[in-house]
Each structure stands twice: as C-alpha cells, then as structure tokens.
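Workshop exercise sheet. Pairs work together: one partner reads the sequence aloud, the other fills in the structure field after running the prediction. Swap roles for the next sheet.
Pair: D.N. / O.F.
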Amino acid sequence: MKKILKPIISATVAATMIGTMGTVVFAEGEADYSALDGKTISFMTSQSKFFDAYQTMADAIEKDYGCKVEFQVVPDDQYTSMTNLKLSTGEVPDVLEQNYPSQNVAMNVYEYCEDLSNEPWVSRLVNPDMLKDSKDGKMYALPKESSSGYQVVYYNKELLESCGITDPEPQNYDEFLEILKTIKEKSDAAPFLQTNKDNWETQIFMTGGIPIMLGEKADEVYEKLLNNEMEWTEIPEATEVLQRYIDLYTEGYVNEDNLSVGYDDAAQIMADGKAAMYLTVDQWATDFSKNHPEVELGSFVIPFGDKPVLPTGNYVQGLFVPNAGSQVDVAKMFLQVWSLPKYQDMYYAENPGFSAFNDVNGGEATACVQSIVDKYIKTGNYVYELNGQLADANGCFSDLWNFYVEAAAGEKTAESVWEDFQMIYVDYMEQQGYEAFE
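Structure field:
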C-alpha cells in the first residue's frame, strides 16, 4: 500500500474569541454555553496523563457553568488497549485523552471520532499544521501543548559536578560514553537510570536514535517499510542503535533494578542521588523540578550521529470526542470551554510549559527544558521519532517494546529482536488490510 499524503485541508473556524471570568465573548456576539448546565462529562485518561490541575479546572468549570467532570483514570499499561476496545465496542466516554496525531491510525479516528476541524478553538492554535491528520488534513483532537516529547537526558547537576563534570554537552557518542564511564568510576550512583517496568520508557532510546542514524534516507526507509519493500532486518542503523543500548547494560552503566522500577519511581531515585542521569520526556523534568526544587537538573541530547540532534515526538496530548458518545454536541461544547484561557492558565500555573493556544500564559518553563527548546526546537535542529513516522504500524509497536526489554535483560540479541519483530509486523499489516502485505 502506497502511503499517500493528501494536501493539508485548511480548517474553517469561527470568529476569534476572548475568554473572561465566566462569559465567553466573540467578536460577533456572545457564545451560549447554557447547554452545559446540569450535565456530567465522562473524561477518560491514563495515570501518567492525569494532573491535579485537571481537577482544579473541572471544579472551576462546574462553578461557572454547572457542568461536572467525572474523571476515569486508567493504569498506563492498560490504557491503549482499553481505549481501542471502548472505541470498537461503542462503550465510550464523552472525552478521551491520547497522543495526537500519532495515535490517529491505531485508534481509527476516521471511523470512531468526531472531526473537530471547524471548532472555534482551532483559530487560536500555535501549531495547527502539526496537528492535522496526514491522511485527510482534519483535526480530531483538542491539543494541550504546542509540542512535546523531547527525548533528553536529564541529570543531577550536583552529582555530576562531584564527578568533575560540569554542564556536559557531548558532541558525539564516544563523548557520551566517556561521561558514563567517569560517573561509574567516581560515584556509587548508577550512571544511566532505566525504568523498564514501563516499556514505553525503554523504547525511547531506539525511537529517537534510529531516525537520527538514518539521517537523510529516513523517509525512504519508512516508505519502503510501509510498502513491504524492506524488512526491519535490512536496516543496519536500527541494529546498531539497539546494540548500543544493549552495551550500556553489559558495561554496567544501568541500574541493576531496571526491570522492577518504573517511570513513577524515577523522580525519587534521582532526587536521592541513586542515579545520575535519566533519558525521558520533558514532562518528567517539569514535574521533578516542581516536586524536588532542592535538586537542580541539567539536560543534553544523546549525540547518536556526528553532531547533537534532538529526537522529539510529532504529537501532543489531545482530547478526542468519540462519535458513539451519548452527548457529542455537549462534549464539543465542553472542549471549547476547557480550551479557554481562564482554565488553561490554571493548568500552566501548576505545570509551566508550552501551551497549544496563543492566548494562554504557559508560564516560565523549567530551565533544563527551556534550554532544549531554545537550542533545538527554535533552531529546527530536531527529527521526529520513529513511532510518529510509522503511525500506521503503531498498533504492533508494543510487541517491539517488549522485545527491547528482553534485549536489555540479555534474553535477546539485537539481530533477533528485528527478526522476531519482522514477523509480527507483517502479520499486523496483513490484518489491517494493507494492500502491499496481501
């Protein structure tokens, strides 16, 4: 099946609005949200996506509009499968949160979710082009951030300084290994924290490293994979990156309890000085700095190639409206209210970052995250992660991530991971009805 990208369709949006303390005033009149009064919105999200500020926002909306929000918080390891099950059976919440647009294909939003392209909030987006679906150009979710998923090494500055390392910025992979070696020799801390209890964390090294190693031929490789013209075993860069990851374990740079600790454990481990560095996403650093202000973090990107390049997700957190819901129009109205500056500012007051909306105050971002944005995002020195570029196959990537964990545990070689995944990949694409795999 040829992967054809249709021209981006421009969204037609309503008049620009201005949010005030309980009234939403449009340039051409006043919006009426009275239909929200007395309603309850079921809002499904995962454990790592839910923030205390959501409840703050919900309480304020209930006070202003008489609309209650009932949060359904699902464990991370069950969330994707539960989301897809609910969509396929029609037993859906009014609103659900998921990575967007990278999960569009896996969720089959074309069949199961409302087209939100013409909603009023679209006119206020900072980064609308990234959010339009690559197949039909439509907007299927209300985004939280303008960009996210920066895959960065965050480190305990004081701990590294005790090892004689100040403000590291490795320019090639050997320099990165030298930092790990120095920490191992001069500290009792694990140089490189890994939390393989959560396989989505394990895969960050590969989903970011492989596109960087592929360089200019990345698009060609992706196209061949999607058209069944190339096997995963025929990509030496993929094998090399995975072998580098395995080597971190064999060289003793990774914490020995990596299989039993997860993402939620990482902050305390780092705060206690039991690990020096953690490869993860930007939201973790923001949360850490808020909860552990006594520990200063620094950041750098792993230079997989001949210079540092940031791997990042081409997704944000998005709120979808399933079309099988019992009150679709009310859910859309709720999203419009949720998007207003009054409520979005509440979120960013507690979680400073990069808002999806140009009229929302994102606050002062965490310094170690802001520096990455300044060095890489603003200069265009970044590549999108593997997962986002192969969204059609996202439904089988969890199997690949499990293989990564097995490789880290010494149960698979780099070569056997790709051999085993190739069979799963072909079977999945066949089941999805892709012509090239029939």
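Discussion prompt: The chain is about 40% helix and 15% strand. What would you look at next?
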